[in-house]
Amino acid sequence: MTDNKDIVLDAVRDYHRATASDTGFKPGVTEIWPSGAVLDEEDRVAIVEAALTMRIAAGPSSKKFESDFAKLLKRRKAHLTNSGSSANLLAISALTSETLGDRRLKPGDEVITVAAGFPTTVNPILQNGLIPVFVDVDLTTYNTTADRVAQAIGPRTRAIIIAHALGNPFEVAEVAQLAKDHDLFFVEDNCDAVGTLYDGRITGTFGDLSTVSFYPAHHLTMGEGGCVLTNNLRLARVVESLRDWGRDCWCEPGKNNTCFKRFEYQMGNLPAGYDHKYIFSHVGYNLKGTDIQAALGLTQLAKLDGFVEARRRNWRRLREGLDGLPGLLLPEPTPRSLPSWFGFVITVDPKARFTRAELVAHLEERKIGTRRLFSGNLTRQPAYIGRPHRIVGDLTNSDIITEHTFWIGVYPGLTDEMLDYVVATIKEFVAERG
Question: Which of 16, 164, 182, 218 is catalytic?
Fold first, then answer.
């Protein structure tokens, strides 16, 4: 049996080498994507090897990934999910659990977040009957500040959830301290920032809960996938229950009677001795990942340090190459941080002799992919018009982002030749417009 498996995996390696083609970079012809997965021979082998086990649900690879990833982020518990969006849903939903007593979030409670972000950082607030409180961001870091968050705290404020913008951290230590001082829950959306440091400490370790995405655009990929991490064992237990249909049982799939009293419980209005595997203590979901996803995640995790360094190197090349160009507002890392960049964000000065749309069209015509800074000002999106919310201060910069901002790629699949072509293309465009 082992010999047969080795034969299959050797064939997979041969297939990978035979089909991996590098035709070279052709300016204006080769697509330069803003993001993408970097997958190698070992990733392909890992997927096939996991498939050969026929373990089609969560299993040993999932548990190993959760353990290894928790160690990396110095958290006691990590729970693998089917997406980063699901991870955010679980994190916010966990804070509404009745097991938290008087601290739990209730409908009508307020949660502070930013207006210029990704929808699934905010959606779980509304989906749980809570009220988002929107604050603005800066146009250099694209993050909000601790001062803005402090000004937004009101009598109904019970939690904060903020994402690190394109790998650049917000003032996460200061926001964590604000949360502690005001007895607020703090969820750190780390989906775009795995490997980022703030004050020498890795992001994803400051909040009561933190979340990560493994979508192909992100620092590690499982194709789809996400994770919720925490040091709080009570919150971890709630997250697990909500992820796994809302069940009270904590047996792994395929296991029975881990607690040694499977038929001795009496909960709710159920008869005594009701099978604990079918007792549900939360109104939950099924948001688990699979072992095949986790097997890919494990091989990706081994390459994380190299991925992070490549992202930093690529960002620096763009920043240095574009420095000083008139009409462009270029990004800056947050003070006291070392970002693990997700993308390179550019804002066209509203007073420039050209528009964002013109520059984007110039890039796209030359096969250089661009993306908007996600939703822009969320309060202007059709899905959120008429939804309950509160705004503190103005959202001037979020509106500027909506009109004038986009980003380009720094992911590890980009070469120096590609990045230099991007720089030359932008310089050419700016020069033509005086």
Answer: 218
